[in-house]
Amino acid sequence: MVLDGEVNPDSYRDEIQLWWRQIKPKLYEKQWVVYAKPPMGSVSLVVEYLSRYAHKVAISNHCILDVGDQTVKFQYKDYSDHNKVKLMVLLSGEFIRRFGQHILPKGFVKMRHYSILGNSNRKKRVNDILQKMRLPLHPPTVKIPCQLRMLEKYGVDVTICPSCSQGKLVLIEKVYPGNRGSPFNFINQIDMQ
Question: In 3-state terms, what secondary structure has residue 25?
Answer without folding.
Answer: helix
